[in-house]
Amino acid sequence: MIIGYTAGVYDLFHIGHLNLLxxxxxxxxxxxxxxxxxxxxxxxxxxxFIPYDERIEMVRSCRYVDAVVPQNDMDKLAMCKxxxxxxxxxxxxxxxxxxxxxxEKEFNKNNIKIIYFPYTKGISSTRIRExxxxxxxxxxxxxx
Length: 144
What we know:
single chain, 5 strands
């Protein structure tokens, strides 16, 4: 059985999230998704609009997802090893960065392949958040 893993905040769930999950499920038998807990979102200097317990339930309800786990830290390699994942799926907005080149080396040493999927152009939770805040006369810095 091929196990795949991906993780994210999944705030303001949108077509980009759905595309990632659909593409990932097409490459594995079991797709496990980590949903970032609120404390880790705060650590990244952000704030989710949707609380963790609601975000995890939305992801769990997606037909492409076989299991959902909390993402309590940034160590995706440790989670992949714990889950027995052969693949880590991420958006290609990370591709080619020095950080992810180093990740690829570490993952390869552990026989885990990082698969990059095309980023869905024109949509992101950040962009949706910006538009919502503009409507309310606020800015992203007001959320920090």
